[in-house]
Amino acid sequence: MRIRFVIPTIDSMSERIIVHPYIYILATSVKRCSANHEPRTLSIKIPRLLLAELISHALQDDPNESCGLLLGVGEIADEVHRMSNVNVKPISRYAMQRGELLEAQEKAKKSDRAFVAIYHSHTFTQGYPSKTDIKNAVAVASISTRHVIISLVEKTRPVVRAFEIDPKANVTELVIKTDGEQYRASD
Ligand SMILES: [Zn+2]
Predict the structure, then answer these.
(1) How many whole angstroms from 167 Cα to the centroid of ligand 1?
(2) Distance 123 CA to ligand 1 centre (A)
C-alpha cells in the first residue's frame, strides 16, 4: 500500500524554511512477522513541522547531503537535531562529527529522550538506502536502527522515506505517520 500525503506550503516557521509549493511525503506500508507470527506494521511518527525541517535542511545543504538526528521517545520524533556533514565527499556521502554526536547524546539524555532516527539526504538519487548506507547503518546500529532519507532527486517534490536497518543488514521500510489530516483523493 502506498500512501501519499500532501503538505501545504510552509512559510511562517522561520526564515530557514525554503518555500516549496508541493512537498510529497511517500510512505510505503510494509508488514513483517514478529516472533509470534502476528503481522505488524512498523512505523515512525514525524510531525509535519519536523518533516518540513528535514526537507528544509536537505534543500539548504543541496547539492551536499544533509544529516542529523531525530530526537524523541520510542518511535515518536519531537525534534530535528541538525548535524554537520564532515565527510570528505559530502556530495555523495555523509558522516557525523563525533563531538557533535556526543553533544546530541547528552542533550537527549538530559531531556529523557533518545535518538528516534538518523536522517540524511540524497541529492541526486532516490530515497532508498545505498549499499554504503546499509553498511554504515550496521556500524551505528547501537545509536539507532531507524533511518530517514530525504530525496531531492526531483527538487520541487522532495520525498521522505524511512527504514529500519537491523544489525544483520535487513532493510524494512517504515510507515511514516504524521499529525493532521491525511491525504484524501478528490471525488
Ligand atoms: Zn544515503
Answers:
(1) 17
(2) 9
